[in-house]
């Protein structure tokens, strides 16, 4: 029974991590500076609902096995020894919380990305201001790019980050559901090719621009 419980726990942890791997790697890429990691596990995204389902089923069954009343057997055998920590309810509880955090990762991954929002002052005439980014109204350009490889909220933040890394870009809004990112920039300080190049370095691919 204990060996069965151990296998269920290992399966639950594995599937929970697998379900969120496509969302975790962009954060790891940002932290480690290895941009090529960003979309390495994007192929897992279509499997995510199944992995989530397996995780919930396996951990639910593990809890059922742990909480169901044990059958009383009349015998002269000695009382069972106290189960080890890895077979205890406390350990299963820790695993369940960990799995929950992994499954919910796409929805709080934004907190791991730096805030690159820029304060922008739109002006009609030239001005020297070192504290805020000033943009002449006639220099504002908006482009919409189609991005291949975005599969979750963490991908949004990675693409937005890469766009805002280009001097002159002051707004970037990505949407992994539509596979697009809308970017506003000062054409006197940046151009579309620079922005595309910055995004492509993450290994998310810019397909075209409208």
Structure characterization notes:
By secondary structure, this protein is α+β, with helices and mostly antiparallel strands. The protein has 2 domains: 2-68 and 84-110; 120-209, Alpha-Beta Plaits (2-Layer Sandwich). 44% of the residues lie in helices and 17% in strands. The chain is built from 5 helices and 6 strands, in the order αααβββαββαβ. The protein has helices at 2-32, 48-67, 89-108, 153-164, 192-200; strands at 120-123, 133-136, 140-148, 169-175, 180-186, 205-209. A 4-stranded antiparallel sheet has the order 4-5-3-6. A two-stranded parallel sheet has the order 1-2. Strand 4 and strand 5 (180-186) form a beta hairpin. The termini are far apart.
Features:
single chain; 210 residues; alpha+beta; Alpha-Beta Plaits; 2 domains; 4-stranded antiparallel sheet; two-stranded parallel sheet; 44% helix; elongated
């Amino acid at each position: 029974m204990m060996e069965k419980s151990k296998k269920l726990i290992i399966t639950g942890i594995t599937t929970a991590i697998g379900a969120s791997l496509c969302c975790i790697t962009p954060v790891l890429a940002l932290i480690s500076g290895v941009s090529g990691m960003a979309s390495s596990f994007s192929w897992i995204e279509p499997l995510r609902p199944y992995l989530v389902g397996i995780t919930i089923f396996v951990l639910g069954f593990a809890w059922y096995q742990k909480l169901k009343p044990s059958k009383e057997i009349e015998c002269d055998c000695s009382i069972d020894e106290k189960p080890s920590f890895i077979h205890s309810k406390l350990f299963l509880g820790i695993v369940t919380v960990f799995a929950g955090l992994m499954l919910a990762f796409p929805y709080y991954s934004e907190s791991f990305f730096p805030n690159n929002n820029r304060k922008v002052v739109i002006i009609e005439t030239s001005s020297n201001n070192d504290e805020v980014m000033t943009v002449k109204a006639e220099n504002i350009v908006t482009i919409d790019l189609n991005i291949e490889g975005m599969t979750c909220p963490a991908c949004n933040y990675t693409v937005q980050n890469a766009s805002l890394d280009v001097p002159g870009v002051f707004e970037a809004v990505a949407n992994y559901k539509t596979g697009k990112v809308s970017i506003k920039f000062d054409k006197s300080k940046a151009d579309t090719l620079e922005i595309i190049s910055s995004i492509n370095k993450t290994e998310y691919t810019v397909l075209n621009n409208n």
